[in-house]
């Protein structure tokens, strides 16, 4: 690695004062970036001995009495980094006693058993296979299972029954045409798309196992994606994974080409104004460019069976019973919150403005400015720190999934015209961890570059513990992203879409992206099985957005939020009462909002008005703009004014 291009030196300089590395500059240390940084710096252990020892000391401080590793200031259920720590311990040659303790703790963690019979009509995975979850008490997913299998194999547990089952799970979740995503192959009969990052981790976990058509297909998919794309993170993971499959046809040529592509992508990223110099990607760059000197993800050859670990000897601190005082405290908090909800008063009328818009090339800034006249007194922007939360769940070139970048641009202009002190754009997608790719591919990056507005990845933002003011999910607290929790004004900028679980995904459902994935995992499934409606209302009650602007210029109908079809509507909808905004959007879609769970619950929790009589429609009328939106069949009873 030349002196002119030394990611290791830059990575060492990004270390926190107390040891370890954060996901972003000036962020306190987190487990995942610290683990990857230690792996990268270990290539030149003498040169970076001080940074390595400081990082290892910080990791030790994250050890919990049960043998797992968790972020002290994070969500205690988020146990997934334990696998990364075990892998680092094995690579750096920690003593057997340390390895055995961490391995036993990891083996003691299991994903929640899926209800197979109930899931047959939803997806085609084997719910009986158990791997590892992101958070304790939740289901098994590809990425934490891949890390667990990889770490346990590196620690000598190749043949442990849990590892074998985890590898079977990975193959079961893999797509026949190549690759894997967070863990579902199909939803309601629709095939889902693979994702490069999880595919690379799956291949690393499966290395050296008997060849399988899905492994071959995954190698081919990852190579094709790497050569077709220019995203730094995807390129790095692809090179690290393909290196252990170099005997597959064409892979050696791909590896050679990827080195230069990574250098070029790193240079472009360094000059991209909306991107923060993330230590995690710096570490990945160093790891991927250094495979000629050794790939720490390549498992050593060994001919020994993993010993049975005493998994039953370790108890989770989360599985123990609460002390009486803690139970009483939670009960009284719940009673107090319910009392506050009952005392909350709603305005007798909420205003929602519907503005006609021809297309995305119209003067959207002027449209938004005129709409805002009705809400300036209630939601002043002057002197405020404003966070814009678009919907950016996935990107597909031929699908209308995300909030259009021109809508985001119009709202940035509004904030600056009104004298906002600071404007940030932030999102935490539930599917793709690599949000940097989504921002660039969707065109939002061009808007951020033009306006010199930073982007915050909420999935890896600092978690802030807040008392759950909704109390519908059974969770005492929610962990919000710091960027959202501390904002003066939060503006929800969703796309007008149907949703195969929630009926419609609008300004309230958009709030799922404000909870960090590092606390709830990907695809934030825990929020689903605790009840989507419950989760939406809990988040909204805990940090209620101040304004909503819905991109209804072109919406999505049918099997949303990803696989529906475009539906031109030609409207922007704005309001400061998000229940009223979403109810208006549903009526525009000819869906009955008074039968949609989260809107009914939101109204009961006094978050906003639901009945048409309590919503003052401004601008265009619903009758003038309403169009029937198709839905998945089980929501047809909610259609308004048309036969189901």
Structural description of this entry:
- It is a single chain.
- The chain is an alpha/beta fold and 644 residues long.
- The protein folds into 2 domains: 7-299, Glycosyltransferase; 324-638, Rossmann fold (3-Layer(aba) Sandwich), CATH 3.40.50.11440.
- The chain is 40% helix and 12% strand.
- The protein has 25 helices and 14 strands.
- Helix 7 (142-154) packs parallel to helix 9, helix 9 (196-206) packs parallel to helix 11 and helix 11 (232-242) packs antiparallel against helix 12.
- The model is unreliable at 303-323 (pLDDT under 50).
Q: Give the N-to-C terminal Cα separation.
A: 65 Å
| CATH superfamily placement of the largest domain | LarA, N-terminal domain
Shape category: globular
Summed up, the domain count is 2
How big a fraction of the residues is strand? 5-15%
User: Roughly how many Å is the radius of gyration?
Assistant: 25 Å
Q: What is the typical, i.e. mean, pLDDT?
A: 92
**What name does CATH use for the topology of the largest domain?**
Rossmann fold
Count of DSSP H/I helices? 25
**Which segments are poorly predicted (pLDDT under 50) over 5 or more consecutive residues?**
303-323
Find the count of extended strands (DSSP E, 2+ residues): 14
Q: Approximately how much helix is present in the residues?
A: 40-55%
The biggest beta sheet reads:
10 strands, mixed
The level 1 CATH classification of the largest domain is: Alpha Beta
Structural class call reads: alpha/beta
What's the architecture of the largest domain in CATH terms?
A: 3-Layer(aba) Sandwich
